[in-house]
Amino acid sequence: MILHNGIIDVAEFCPSPNFDERPQNTDINLFVIHAISLPPGNYDTQLVKDLFLNCLDPGKDEFLRSIKDLKVSSHFLITRQGKLIQFVPIHKRAWHAGISNYKGREKCNDFSIGIELEGCDEDEFELQQYDTLSQLINYLSNDLKISKQNIVGHADIAPGRKTDPGPYFDWSLLQSML
User: Fold this and answer.
1) Distance between CA atoms of 106 and 110, rounded to whole angstroms?
2) 75, 86 Cβ separation under 8 angstroms
3) Cis before 159 (ω within 30)
4) Would you call 116 a catalytic residue per the annotation?
5) Angstrom distance (rounded) from CA 130 to CA 113
6) For the domain that residue 28 is a member of, what is the CATH number?
7) What is the pLDDT, as a whole number, of residue 2?
8) Pick from 35, 48, 75: which is nearest to 164 by CA?
9) Residues 106, 116, 118, 126: which is the catalytic one?
10) What is the distance between the alpha carbons of residues 57 and 124, in angstroms, rounded to a whole number?
11) Are 87 and 15 in contact (CB under 8 A)?
């Protein structure tokens, strides 16, 4: 992996308009792991990409209609097959965490890297996803000097509001791969 202008060279880059500047002099020191499937339980990578690119066509799906106007993004998405897609350069602030708090610091988007895994609370994640995730974290933690202890789930920084990556995410497996 090589980082150029905040973009990982092995990732498919799909530039999302949903980002802005991080606050000045803010160190990036947290990884936030998410899970996403649209609609829930359906693994259609294109729908996730469309959501982050503001071009989601909800068709007749009630859930997709309910989120079609959201302005959200993540730095990365890792598909069920382990493919890495990037939406926002790492030095920019992606809109993934929402109202959040980590060790007394609010607004986690300011100082974190958001990584979405294609998945949901009811399914296990694929080994290929853990492989890609661990490679990404290993690379970025070295490049950005982020402690590998600063990896949390969305539920950890937004308890009561979010549940992802869910009970089937294998934290022990991820740690063993780092």
Assistant:
1) 9
2) yes
3) no
4) yes
5) 16
6) 3.40.80.10
7) 84
8) 35
9) 116
10) 28
11) yes
SS3 assignment, position 6: coil
- The total number of residues written for the chain in this structure: 178
Boundaries of domain holding 86: 3-177
Please, what is the average pLDDT of the chain? 96
- Determine the Cα–Cα distance for residues 141 and 82; give it in Å rounded to an integer: 19
Domain count, the chain: 1
pTM score of the predicted model: 0.97
Residues 14 and 52: beta-carbon distance below 8 Å: yes
Run of H or E residues at 156: helix 154-157
Q: Which of 11, 141, 16, 19 is nearest to 79 (CA)?
A: 11
Is it true that the peptide bond before 39 is cis, omega within 30 degrees of 0?
Answer: yes
Span 102-160, pLDDT tens digits: 999 999 999 999 999 999 999 999 999 999 999 999 999 999 999 999 999 999 999 99
Q: State the sign of the Cα–Cα–Cα–Cα dihedral 148, 110, 170, 141.
A: negative
- Write out pLDDT tens, residues 59-71: 999 999 999 999 9
Query: Token pair for residue 12?
Result: 């498919």
Q: How many angstroms separate the Cα of 44 from the Cα of each of 38, 115, 116?
A: 7, 17, 14
